[in-house]
Amino acid sequence: MRTRPGPWLAAPTALFLLAFFAMPLLIVSWYSLMPPRTFSMLGAPTLANYAAAFSDGYEKPLLWSMLGATLTTLICALMAWPTAKILHAHAGRAASIITALIALPIFISESVRLFGFSMFLLPRGGILAGSLNAWFDIQIGSILNTRLAALLGMIYVYFPFMLFPLLLGVSLIPEDRLEAARDLGAGRWALFREIELPLAAPGLMIGALLTFVLCLGANAEAAILGGRAVTVISAAIEQRFSYAQDWPMGAALTVIVILVTAAVVWPVLRRVDLNRIIQR
Amino acid sequence: MIRDRHVRYLKAVWIGTIILLLYIPIVSVVLVSLANTRYMRFPHRVWSLDAYREAVDSFTTWSIHLVSLQMALCVVIMAVVLGTLGAMAFARYDWHGRSVFQRLIVLPIFFPQPVLGLALLLSFSALGITPGWKTAVIAHAVWIVPIVTLVISIRLFGYDVAQEEAAFDLGASRWQVAREVTFPALWPGIFSGALFAFLLSWSNLPLSIFTSGADTPLPVWLFSRTATNYSPLVPAVAVIGTVISALLVILLLVLRRLFRRA
To answer: Which domains does chain B have, with CATH numbers?
Structure first.
């Protein structure tokens, strides 16, 4: 009876991810070392692509993506904190309906929601500009096809990814500890800094991590809402792969994004105990 | 007291604003779909359902939905099988290497999806595999299997292993225990996992866009037609595709309720 089924149960999933997650990353890493504009994997390894990545202006899309991801994460965190606190404090039927309403859009395709966003912002005949013009006789310009629009699109799409981990985090704060601190004369800021923030930190970190990483690769927001105002790193990589037919260069850019991701994800995941968060 | 009421009011306004902002784009799609013009001028001079009629008559509408449907069904099967096994290893059994497995399995969730799609595209091309809906299924599964594993694991953490031992002590066979004890306990997790898998695959854009090759699932079609070659079909198809997934979810939830009562 006392066999150890753990490794056997883990094996199929682990093998699947090895084959289709770890392997592709290895293949891409290897490709990034091939001579520029070749398609074979048998060339002599070189670092030429990495050198070119930093001399040919590819750091720009990468920096835009990182800036967009950082801003989105910060703004989402600032918006999600009060939201999570309110939903947690008023837990009940109404709060669960609101939570469900916030979660629902996750399951509606990004292409549908971003298309709607662009139609809302469309100049002149758009939902916003058209309504204001017809009913209030107000004419407004539009932020469509700007970097700001792309940023707003990312905040809009990734807000739930920040909110839900944070909601878990906030629920880890015991109410009696807050009360005890209040009785001892702790102010609002002290409560937040000394008790709420450290206790909710696992949820906050997971949420921030998820938002940052998803935004780092995001390209649909920039494509639909940003117009040609900004080139993000995924768009730059795709451009190398398809139009330029320069696989090794695209692979090198991919590896750089993977390294940035790993540098952010690994330290956090090592510290957070998943068992504890999930068990709640 | 008055200050309290103000705070309550502010909180309600804040939550209301968030909900409003989240739904503005979705409502916008519906509004746009109610006119049949190529150049939108809202408010519409003529409100009509013509775009929907055209969408239903169009072969493309059917084919993109079928591609999305067959992809989502394959992803559900893969995610449920691999996710259930993975969750047992994740949450049910204690074994050497479990904490490493737990950390590694969540990595695909914390990974930029378009970059994963591009890495898979390059790998498939390098290995001489032509991208199509099957490669897109693989790409979806890499991201969705870990999510479903977590969803089922959350359920499993609340599962009391002693029930199984009690059943064995009462003389139940291995098969009986699996069917009468383990499976009913796992079922709610599997159900939600399958639902998640379906919806996430059905709506996924960033993985499909690079890995689906010549086959076009719904979100990819919408994305490419939004960027170029816009037609009034786009908002109508967007609404149809979303409504189909919503109806399916409602149907499944109703069925589950009926079965539970029976």
So the answer is: 58-261 (1.10.3720.10)
